[in-house]
Amino acid sequence: MSDQSQDSPPPVPIQELSHRSQWASFAMRKEVWDFQRNVSILPDPKKGELLPASDTRHPENPESSRGQKLRVGIIGAGVSGLFTALTFDYLREHYDLDVEYEILEANGDERLGGRLYTYCFKDKKDEKGNNIPPGVPDVGPHEYYDVGAMRFPDIEIMARTFALFKELDMQFNNQDIEENRKNNPPKKGQLVPCHLNGENQPMLYNSVQIVTDGKKSPTAADFEITGLPIEITQSNPSELFDSQISYYTYLYKTAGPRMFWNSLTKTADHYSVRQYLTQIASYDYNTIEFLEAMNFGNRWYDQAFSEAVLEALDFDPKAKWWCVEGGSQQIAYRMRDRLQHAQAIEYKKRVLGMSYVDKDCQQIDVTVQGEDKPRRFDAVFNSAPLGAMQQMSLEGLRLNWGTKQAIRSLGYGASCKIGVRFKSLWWIEKLGIKDGGQGKTDLPIRCCVYPSYNMHDPVDKPGVLLVSYTWSQEAERIGALISRDSPANEDELKLVVLHDLARLHTSTDAAFEDLKRTITEEYLDHYAYNWYADPTSVGAFAFFGPGQFQNMYPSIVQSHGKHIIIGEAASSHHAWVVGALESAVRGVYQFLWQHAGASEAARRAAEDYAADKVPMPFGPVPAEYDRTQDIRVPSTVKDAAVPSPKGELVRQQAMIEEIRLKQGGDVVDTSKVVKEDVAPILTVVNA
Ligand SMILES: Cc1cc2nc3c(=O)[nH]c(=O)nc-3n(C[C@H](O)[C@H](O)[C@H](O)COP(=O)(O)OP(=O)(O)OC[C@H]3O[C@@H](n4cnc5c(N)ncnc54)[C@H](O)[C@@H]3O)c2cc1C
């Protein structure tokens, strides 16, 4: 057991969790620790008496009708919303949990999946000879591109995503093997390889073009970039950045997580990457700008330095990456088709606001655009991205300042993508870019992705190139040229794209003119998307700033199981499908805890979650909730040597939020907490 004499929660002792999960756990445990320290009827953590695991069995409630039907509203038919519904189906099947859900989606059915969005180019006529409108699936084998999520590394952190793929019967089909290409062409929804690097990848910075195999990073000297200290000019830019975080990665590996977390929170979390590199690494201004331009893109270094360290610890460059044949939206179609009640998804139902019905905050009224009467639910899973959530009227939910602040100000990143359909795969035929991968430049298009899913297609037939993938300020800027009804009204964008594309792939003016002429002739059509201009996403993905994870994250994941915020931002794996899935599991667990007193099935399911018996992908509770050694009583409970069950942190957080709502204040007044508030805990202490 750890040293409890300090004023912070005990250290994180477990090493096998992902670093992001450990970070999330660290942030959330502080709140439980503070609560326990200040509530006099609870054990004193300073004396080594830690908060016990609460009894998973809830006080019997004779008034309640056990096994009652519970009505649940799910806002959003993206990954997290659909997965919440699938998890309830699983719980119905295995525990007889009687939950009736409705999924309210603001967009039409063509946008099922939210940020799982595959755009398909038109090229077919229907039987009457009319053009099939853009965006309709089933047009050409590979004449699409993924506007949102597009690739998935097969690593431990993504285990739940791959478990979902298995659940949805999405088989691996390795098209890198010639035999498979001949005998086993991929079917929609199968997983095919995705290559991050390959031969003949162009890089163009400072108007100097260098062609690499994507593995070696050229230096500033190679690109004739001036104004930098001599030692910087000769160095590999990614190694330069790595050298600055190596102190923390070394600390993690040698001194262990406790030293690592202490050091990261005390010395680094409050810095942005830019501030850290200026004040601690003493890099000069030009060097930082150069590293940012080479490694990521403008304003990327405004994120928290701690996030960058965690990213570096998590990233596995040797992983095998996969993408989905037919596009990632196939995942959403398969999820929909797997639902027991696919008709539960209601499209064009924009949620405008929510309010608790009663003073005990047990039911929620949801106002939907165009409907006279609110819909009433026992609980609501809110998966709208934070910017879209902020547009809802949530006053009636009695959110506290911390949650309101988190919804309003947690960092959310920009991203744009532009896909162009050409008459042929000229990048393979003319330039030998035959392995997929990506080209990079300091021009506005920034990153050009050569799809792996079409690299074995006939080169003389039409195909799509993701000519531009941008983030942060570069996305905001190119976004100024993207119209809401792309490809209409985008003449200027088209000029920029064809210019940059030809420049990226050539090294002389003559070759540039030649390639520009070719690709202009080859151009068929395009589709561009700016995620910040989409009112249902208002940004691309969570991108936390300095101190935000530590201080704001707990406020969006805390819930007493009635209004539950889910979605990738409310997880420790931002910008990944796995984060959306994890948030849904956490949300369902919070829901089960809340309803365990009234529903026998919910109680049994909650107990199985707590005992880690619910299999992937529907369980277990996300790893950050596994770190509960510090919230048990080591000396007074007879089985204290056994760690608290998984999910205990969720339960403690839910209890604190319920007390706050009962008290009606912005924060819990710890002096007013009474025995009944913490009854499940005290039962165990007294046992
Ligand atoms: C450009 C880009 C690239 C990405 N690349 C990858 C990748 O390669 N691999 C990976 O794993 N992940 C990737 N991601 C991340 C991944 O797509 C997301 O993490 C995940 O899809 C988010 O799911 P969600 O359910 O949290 O949110 P969403 O998918 O955004 O779902 C939220 C839903 O709520 C709806 N909604 C919003 N407001 C309302 C309202 N008022 N009323 C009703 N409904 C509403 C929206 O229309 C939407 O359907 C990428 C994301 C982007 C944007």
From TrEMBL:
Pfam families: Amino_oxidase (PF01593). Residues 99-586 form the Amine oxidase domain. It comes from the Eukaryota. Gene3D superfamilies: 1.10.10.1620, 3.90.660.10, FAD/NAD(P)-binding domain (3.50.50.60). Residues 44-63 have a biased composition (Basic and acidic residues). Residues 44-69 are annotated as: Disordered. InterPro entries: Amino_oxidase, FAD/NAD-bd_sf, Flavin_monoamine_oxidase. This is Flavin containing amine oxidoreductase. The lineage of its organism: Eukaryota, Fungi, Dikarya, Ascomycota, Pezizomycotina.
